[in-house]
Amino acid sequence: MKIDYRREGELVLKNQIDIQLSTNRKEKPSFSNLKFGKTYTDHMFIMDYSREKGWYDPRIVPYQPITLDPAATIFHYGQTIFEGLKAYLSENEEVFLFRPDENIKRLNRSSVRMCIPEVDEELALEALKKLVAIDRDWVPNMEGMSLYIRPFIISTEPNLDVTPSQNYRFMIIMSPVGSFYKEGMDPVKIAVESDYVRAVRGGTGNAKTAGNYAGAMLVQEKASASGYSQVLWLDGNEKKYIEEVGSMNVFFKINGEVVTPELSGSILEGITRKSVIELLKYWGVPVSERRISIDELHEAYQKGQLEEAFGSGTAAVISPIGELFWNNEKMLINDGKTGDLSLKVYKTLTGIQTDKEEDPFGWRVKVD
Ligand SMILES: *Cc1c(COP(=O)(O)O)cnc(C)c1O
């Protein structure tokens, strides 16, 4: 689809993505021992924004460094947002994206919160698909592996005044990633964080923006030093209600019912979270989005009703929680083993992503 429209007498082909192919292809890394986020593909997508032109000049070019003025707003005030999704190779060597339209909608929601101009959803989806198609050799053909896609927008205007930038750059870069579960699903140990908070109601917790992650790094480092792989975040207002685990959404199975914290404004609205909820409903498993306090969870644990717990997000899809540390007490969940429902959700979602399972929801989107 191409819409032609005129702006200040200029003919703009809205969906015309200019393509400049690399003449110097990189050597592919050995896909079997990839480190996350270290290797990038041959191409990237770029589109620029100015007040006068709006978003203009969408193009796919060889992957390369960019040049920015040291006074660019991004470096000082962090006006930026990002997304994360994956492309998967099926057994028939077809490439699929998982609900990419949801990522683009969320990209725009994050942008609105950070005062960044929205992008045309159709154009962004087209760019995503074209880029993946061009670099499709980079989608690893090994079990459990995928091509991680990182769309992001940075503010580029040189200006130290604290006002929204007049210029932006939207880019998409891609990196092949290894299997999250090389040695099978091993449930993680989580420490409940009672001092620091990730986000507050009215803050930016529901936007995928850099500051939220920068602010969590110290806390993550402390948890790692004590032998925990992530922290369980409580709400920033009362430090009472459960919000997220690390940078994943969180689910608990309590006495047969699956509970996940309701979207309070400070929780990032995960697409995996949304898919888990829709899948459980489809299966007829009771699931509710509601406030859940750490006290309620502890009480359920004491009664022997805390049956399973897991995080959800694009990177791991499902990450089972085997132990929660809170108030000097270790809560062991399902004997520290992966629960049956957690495993079933994991298998079904990854099955849908890789074309191994029926997709009654129409979540899978084929590339090319
Ligand atoms: C991206 C993210 C998630 C998970 O979102 P998905 O769309 O499922 O990948 C959850 N919490 C935070 C803080 C995130 O940044």
Automatic annotation (TrEMBL):
Q: Which InterPro entries match?
A: Aminotrans_IV, Aminotrans_IV_CS, Aminotransferase-like, B_amino_transII, BCAT-like_C, BCAT-like_N, BCAT_family
Taken from the record, one Pfam family name reads Aminotran_4
Family assignment? Belongs to the class-IV pyridoxal-phosphate-dependent aminotransferase family.
Q: What is this protein called?
A: Branched-chain-amino-acid aminotransferase
Organism, as annotated: Siminovitchia acidinfaciens
Question: Which terms are listed as keywords in the entry?
Answer: Amino-acid biosynthesis, Aminotransferase, Branched-chain amino acid biosynthesis, Pyridoxal phosphate, Transferase
Instruction: Please list the reactions this protein catalyses.
Output: L-leucine + 2-oxoglutarate = 4-methyl-2-oxopentanoate + L-glutamate; L-isoleucine + 2-oxoglutarate = (S)-3-methyl-2-oxopentanoate + L-glutamate; L-valine + 2-oxoglutarate = 3-methyl-2-oxobutanoate + L-glutamate
Q: Which SUPFAM superfamilies match?
A: D-aminoacid aminotransferase-like PLP-dependent enzymes
The broad enzyme category this protein falls into is: transferase
Which NCBIfam families does the record associate with it?
Answer: ilvE_II, PRK13357.1
The protein's required cofactor(s) are namely:
pyridoxal 5'-phosphate
List this protein's GO terms for biological process.
Answer: isoleucine biosynthetic process; L-leucine biosynthetic process; L-valine biosynthetic process
